[in-house]
Structure formats: structure tokens, C-alpha cells
Amino acid sequence: MQKKSKKQAILDQATILFATKGFSNTSMTEVASLADIAGATIFYHFKTKEDLFVAVLERVKIGLLESFSLYFQEEHFDSGLEMLLGAVAYHLHLAESKMEWFLLLRRHYTHELAAVNPVCRRYLEDIYTCLVDIFEKALTRGQEDGSVGDISAKKNALIILAMVDGIIQLESNQLYNAGTLYSELLVACRKIVENTKQ
Predict the structure, then answer these.
(1) How far apart are CA 38 and CA 21, in angstroms?
(2) Which residues, listed in sequence order, are joined to residue 148 by a DSSP beta bridge?
(3) Which among 56, 65, 88, 151 has most CB atoms closer than 10 A?
(4) Which residues contact residue 118 at a Cβ distance below 8 angstroms, ignoring those fewer than 6 apart?
(5) pTM for the full model?
(6) What share of the chain is helix, strand, coil (3-state, %, to 5)?
(7) Confidence of residue 198 (pLDDT cuts 50, 70, 90)
(8) What does the alpha-carbon distance between residue 7 and residue 58 come to, in Å, rounded to a whole number?
């Protein structure tokens, strides 16, 4: 097994800390300590805490893209509708297995920084655009194969993302067990987009 680089170790620990404690409550010293590196080493890789945060966000973006890409390479769908439902289910799976990514996206600071830092804004936009595009691609395929009705693929992709994102937020805020809504979410997505005129 390949040993992690110091930079990877820093990013791993920073992702968890920024996600769970927030930007203000995370110190570079704490990240360095948990990454098991000397305090000064972290500044060799990242000049400021903001630089580190942006690098973490970039890593989340790459992780999401790679995860969905691998999922679609390994799975086969008979229709666009089934592809959409698979993407929704996989999104929920990722939110559970990579909880720190989704907690980070919900942090207030992420959106505050995106308002003033163009690189952070681009990564955040890229992440949400990627997720919308995945759903939109499935809906477009469904319209081509007849499994999805005559709807706006883009607008319905946004609506579905908002539903999935809302359920993930309920779970991450520990307000509701999102797992109990899994089946109902898939049924709701199907009802919204399915071609009923077949």
C-alpha cells in the first residue's frame, strides 16, 4: 500500500476538521498535528488557511467527479429513468460514505468565501453544476428512449437535486433519519419525470 504524501495527509485532516468544526474553529496547527507533520511544514504546502480551504474544496470537486464517473462506468441502465434513479441512489450513498464532503458544502463559510474568492466560487459552482448535469443527462437520455416525459430536463434536474440535497441536510443536521425516506424519494423522482403516456 502506497504511503500518503504529506500534502495528502494535510488535505485529509483539513477536510474532516473544516467539515466538522468549520473554518474559524480549525487551526493550521491542529491540522498539522493530526496530519502528523511539523507545524511549519503545512505552510510549505499552503500559505494561508484560506488557501488550504480552497484546496480542500477542489479535492471534494475532483472526488465527486471521479466517484460518479466510476459509478457510471460500472453500472448499466436500461433507460434514462433507471439511470436517474441510480444517480439519486448513488448520490445518497456518497453523502453517507463521504459525509465530510457534504458537510463542507453546507458550511456557511464555504458560501461566504465563494462570495469574495473567485477560485472558491468556481469550485463550488463546478460541484453543483456537475450534480445537476448528471441528473440532466439521465433525463435527456430518458426523453430519447421514451422513459421520461416531455419536461424541462434542466429544471427538473435542479428540482431533483434540491430534493436530494434537502434530505441529505436533514440527515447531516441529525433532524431526521434520511434512510427512512430513501424509497419514497425514488418514488417521488419517478412520479415527477416518468412518461405516463407510453
Answers:
(1) 22
(2) 194
(3) 56
(4) none
(5) 0.89
(6) 80, 0, 20
(7) low
(8) 14
For the segment 129-154, what is each residue's pLDDT rounded down to a tens digit? 999 999 999 999 999 999 999 999 99
Which CA distances in Å does 161 have to 18, 29, 157, 196? 24, 37, 6, 22
Task: Report the pLDDT value the prediction gives residue 48, as an integer from 0 to 100.
Answer: 93
Which grid coordinates are listed for 164?
A: 436530494
Domains annotated for the chain, with CATH where assigned, are 56-193 (1.10.357.10)
**pLDDT at res. 2:** 54
* CA pair distance 153, 141, nearest whole angstrom: 10
Mean of pLDDT values over 5-26: 92
- Is the Cβ–Cβ distance between 42 and 32 less than 8 Å? yes
Phi, psi (degrees; rounded to nearest 5) at 30: -65, -40
